[in-house]
């Protein structure tokens, strides 16, 4: 590979990874962590299920029917709330994700009790956390390549 191509690859890896890390942190991971810090855990009863087909533009073959539980629960003040979880679950072939009447562990935002998420889920933040780790490693490799090239006078 020529020196120019190697330099461009290094630059793209470093800048692209930094951009991905920044966007992922701001859009997914940070809001999830803020929710978890202030959320109040409780138990709710599934009274319905909302289904929504989701399509992921990054992979046109990947789509699925997510099920979002509608739960009844009581907030700390004793007021009863009915809300739909913002986090869904794809059903398996052996068991539906939620059953009407089932008790589920949830967490809600005390400032916005309609912001409910069931707690036994593999969150999008966890998935993006893995991608974040890959991006950090890729960015580190790109940066290391750039530093090597600068030290050896190749750039």
What does this protein look like?
By secondary structure, the chain is α+β, with helices and mostly antiparallel strands. It has one domain (3-151). Helix content is 41%, strand content 30%. It is built from two helices and five strands. It has helices spanning 3-38, 124-151; strands at residues 40-55, 63-74, 80-84, 103-109, 112-118. A five-stranded antiparallel β-sheet has the order 3-2-1-4-5, with helices on one face. Helix 1 runs antiparallel to helix 2. The chain is elongated, with a radius of gyration of 22 Å. The relative contact order is 0.22. The model has no long low-confidence stretch (mean pLDDT 78).
Outline:
With 155 residues, this protein is an alpha+beta fold.
What order do the helices and strands come in, and which of them pair?
Elements: H1 3-38, E1 40-55, E2 63-74, E3 80-84, E4 103-109, E5 112-118, H2 124-151
Antiparallel strand pairs: 1-2, 1-4, 2-3, 4-5
Helix pairs in contact: 1-2
Unreliable sequence segments = none
The secondary-structure element order is HEEEEEH
Class of secondary structure makeup = alpha+beta
Rg over C-alpha atoms, rounded to the nearest angstrom: 22 Å
What about the largest sheet? 5 strands, antiparallel
Number of domains as seen in the coordinates: 1
Which features does this protein show?
elongated; 155 residues; five-stranded antiparallel beta sheet; alpha+beta
């Amino acid at each position: 590979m020529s020196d120019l191509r190697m330099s461009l690859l290094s630059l793209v890896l470093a800048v692209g990874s930094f951009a991905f890390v920044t966007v992922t942190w701001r859009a997914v991971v940070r809001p999830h962590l803020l929710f978890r810090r202030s959320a109040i855990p409780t138990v709710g009863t599934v009274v319905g299920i909302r289904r929504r087909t989701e399509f992921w533009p990054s992979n046109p073959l990947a789509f699925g029917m997510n099920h979002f539980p509608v739960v009844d629960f009581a907030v700390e003040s004793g007021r009863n709330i009915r809300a739909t979880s913002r986090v869904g679950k794809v059903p398996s072939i052996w068991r539906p994700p939620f059953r009407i009447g089932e008790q589920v562990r949830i967490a809600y935002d005390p400032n916005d009790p309609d912001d409910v998420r069931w707690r036994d889920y593999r969150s999008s933040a966890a998935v993006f956390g893995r991608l974040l780790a890959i991006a950090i490693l890729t960015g580190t490799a790109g940066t290391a390549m750039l530093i090597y090239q600068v030290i050896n006078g190749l750039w």
